[in-house]
Amino acid sequence: MGGAADVKPTRRFIAPVSECEFTLQSVLEEVTLDEEKRERGKRPQRALGAAIGIATGLLAESHASQGGRVLVFTSGPCTMGPGTVVGTDMGENLRSHQDLEKNASKHYKEACKYYNAIGIRLATNSHTLDVFACSLDQVGLAEMKIAVDQTGGVMFLAEQFRAETFRQSLAKLFARDPKNGALEMRFNGTFSVFCTPQVMVCGAIGPISALAVKSQRISENEIGLGQTTSWRMCSFTPSTTIAVYYEVVNQHSNPIPHGQPFFLQFCTRYKLSDGTIRLRVTTIARRWVESSSAPEIVGGFDQEACAVLMARIATFRTENEESFDLLRWLDRTLIRVGSKFGEYQRDAPDSFRMPPTMSIYPQFMFHLRRSQFLQTANNSPDETAFYRIMLTRETVTTSLVMIQPTLLSYSFNGAPQPVLLDVSAITPDTILLLDSYFLIVVHRGSTIAGWHREGYQDQPEHEAFRALLASPVRDAQALAAERCPTPRLVECNQGGSQARFLLAKLNPSATHNTSANGYGAQQGGGEYIFTDDISLSVFLEHLSKLAVSS
């Protein structure tokens, strides 16, 4: 040591950028493809869990309780050591949703336990775990999700590291404020809530971990991460959104006067990348109304926010409950809302109407039931983990796009128009732009696709057609540029194999069961969806019958 006894041993591994930038860049430039030869039928030996554990320990020793990130780049699952997801023998398959439901996964519980301990240690020191997984197969995101979630980390999925979406997403993670050049990410944050005596805190859902802060305002009805009024946010961005759930607790013998105000307060303390510490305090004032005063309650109802809050609860509960039970819970809750606030005559389903401020709420619930957050068919556990972790941190507007994607129609008749998320929106002479947040689809109708194959867009006399083709692609690229992680962009034609990405999101108002011949396209070049799922109209009919039933 030569007398430098005060220098931490971890400085051998972690140094300021100013001291190691050239060396690090040289090492990265010299990295080559691993040509390790392995036995046939064997997976590579990959001690990913141990590597994450070592990085966590180094960061904890060198920068305890300071902002820091552990970035993991992996192209395969951990096959040895702690955090093992699957063995090296190819005869052992990676776990599926069916395996998890039947507790038939050999390594899943032990790996989750390990990564939970990693997450706790990271969160205790205000450090973050980010995982960039680029592989055609699963890598173990389902097991690592708990560590990423409680530290506010980023999770990214792609097929290969050469993908442009990977490069763009990594660059966006380190985006800087154009005004001062500082990183937009925030570090070492705490989020605390305060409320009036008649309101109790049930919990919160988001990229947070609970702090052991006791208060008289804690409800016994726990939702999300409860039993506290303060949570740690190891890392977050300006768009990070936390859902807080409350319960009104007031004795009937001591009624609250109508119109009396009450207050909710949110205190967010965090550190900027330049070391500046900030405290942001937000106070909200609302007023009490009688529980029997339905018009006033309905007038203040935010159906978009409510849909996202319900989606977060359902997604959080999928960790310990079956999807079927959660679907029944969503249905029962929706029926109670319709029965209490709807306008109808008893036992007359045709008379049922939801108030204007609640009119779209049943539609949100319909699409939530069909979404990848609650339906695991055709998705791997890693994909499901990625979808769910994103829903619990994004804004209301963005989350609604995840639940109920937006659909725009482009044609020669004028500017792009929003259309219903329904199979009837598919016509031969239009181009559809579907934005589901994770995937952006540009779908060409059969006539448009035929003209495109014939190369009409390359002919000078068809300038309008070239402009029509370019418009949705340009808009799709603009949407993708705003997102982190960057979504995948798919261009497809009506009847093509990749058109399935669009059809999976559309309301099946026309199916093979409703067609005259049971097969083929509709008259006029429309589409049928081959599914046994119920349509939105059928869903609303059942809601009407159950809500008005005596």
From TrEMBL:
Record bears the keyword Cell cycle: no
Organism placement in taxonomy: Eukaryota, Viridiplantae, Chlorophyta, Mamiellophyceae, Mamiellales
Gelsolin-like domain residues: 416-502
This protein's name: Protein transport protein SEC23
Membership in a protein family: Belongs to the SEC23/SEC24 family. SEC23 subfamily.
Compartment(s): Cytoplasmic vesicle, COPII-coated vesicle membrane; Endoplasmic reticulum membrane; Golgi apparatus membrane
Recorded superkingdom: Eukaryota
UniProt keyword annotation of Metal-binding present: yes
Membrane topology of the entry: Peripheral membrane protein
Gene Ontology CC entries for this record: COPII vesicle coat; endoplasmic reticulum exit site; endoplasmic reticulum membrane; Golgi membrane
Positions of the Sec23/Sec24 trunk domain: 11-173
